[in-house]
Here is the input.
Amino acid sequence: MTEQKVRWGILATGGIAARFTADLVDVPDAEVVAVASRSVEPAKAFAERFGIPRAYGDWESLAHDEEVDIVYVATPHSAHRAAAGLMLESGRNVLCEKPFTLNAREAQELVALARGNGRFLMEAMWTYCHPMVRRLKALVDDGAIGEVRHVQADFGLSGPFPASHRLRDPALGGGALLDLGVYPVSFTQLLLGEPSDVTARAMLSEEGVDLQTGALLSWESGALASVHCSIVGGTATYASITGSEGRIDIPSGFFFPERFVLHRDGRDAEEFTADPADGPRDSLRHEAVEAMRALRAGETESPLVPLDGTLAVMRTLDAIRDRVGVRYPGETEQDRQAVTPA
Here is the structure.
């Protein structure tokens, strides 16, 4: 695989699968060779749209396609455990959309499968692979703002979404938190790691999913984070990182920033802007490039999106849901009792 193209399979044919595939076909050393759906008609239509040679009407055929090096799982997150698990059990490497799974138990099962089978597994958390976010993290890690004291981040959509929409369907893991809140939580934990305590409040729908959620996360160091997500109000998608010696502000779109501003005590503000050579700010190509780099290097995990970090985010999402009273069909008391932090 070090010299030939990396051969991709696409599992599911919805909007995010189309976006990813459209970006992937522009990556010179990537080749999309197969697509699968639960029925053959949408798979064939998707294949024709993107010039993909093989279209399958079931997941198993893709899982057993020996000419596929890695599968991008783009099903609803309620199906990630089943879809990614099937691929891993069949010897495929996997890039799985976010949120990684419905809960931390499912995430741990996937990680155990990947590690037990020696397969590559990575959450498609594009934010972690985004060049501007990597630049920001490097500044923070190098002490540009001192010790991180507080992180603030929000992601909300104005809606309104009808009760029939997937974002309000408990069976599909609906609600603001898993679909949108995963971004501010992941961004915060990229900088501070897993919190030691979680407090949260939410507005719930009649169906029992969260329409908007706010959480206060805290760490033993004294650091705090304020995160918010919503499907009933559009937010600025703003983020700010305050340190003991300065602050970094991302005015909008913190999960795929075009620019950010560094404020340091006693100095003029410094603005950092995206390099045009990196392509469109909303491109998903960076996560694909990182997965391909790792495969060629013989790695089973990405240092940019480590599996232990993904598990930590899922534990925090579980803890927030526990605090606000959201539980999905099929989840057990054992799932609830496994929630950490306390």
About this structure: The first helix runs from residue 15 to 24. The chain has a mean pLDDT of 95. The CA atoms of residues 332 and 338 lie 10 Å apart. The two ends are 44 Å apart (CA to CA).
